Amino acid sequence: MAADTRVAVVTGGNRGLGLETCRQLARLGYAVLLTSRDEKSGTAAVAELKSQNLNVSYYRLDVTDPASIGALIEHIGKLGRIDALVNNAAVLIDSGKSIFEITTELLEKTMRSNVYGPLELCQRVVPLMRQRNYGRIVNVSSRGGQLSTIANFAPAYCISKTALNAVTGHVALACKGTNVLVNSVCPGWVRTDMGGRDAPRTVEEGADTIVWAATLPDGGPSGGFFADRAPIPW
To answer: Which among 133, 104, 138, 135 is positioned nearest to 118, based on CA atoms?
Structure first.
């Protein structure tokens, strides 16, 4: 890898939005580290991208496991840099349930993937970015996490995305005055395994704003919530 090649890490990169984000970043010249919990599908995804002559490699990561996150950070240290982190990995396991039906166990499982993992990754990655005075962090959120228009579906998922937006705000504030920009992005309702076949948006459309936020120029926005490259209410 050339010394000036930027490195992007994408969680949940084995399919859907994560895979398309890896593809688009690699096409922009990034060396992409595609991570996923499922090694078989992750290595298959990397093979697909490599067949398109894209600079993508695989690393197994379970965002719910601090030891797995620690191993990833050690691997990044060997690479020598991390320029962009896309916290894309997430679970939606309470579709169709009401707020009165979700259990503490279900909420905890959701938060572990959708909030605690991304937060720990931010905590571990930001010091590395500060060393080089460059970094872009994208937390893939959802309009379901907006407090301004609370959604009436999958309450545990929506609560987790509200909390993820709060993580974005706090990390962005902690990075104020540096060249580390931190934002939340809503990709919209996208045709993925999670979004379903009836969703109106393609993965290419959904990944566009994620990639935009991961490649913002110096002086770009930080601490915001974006959809289709425009600010939206929290």
So the answer is: 138
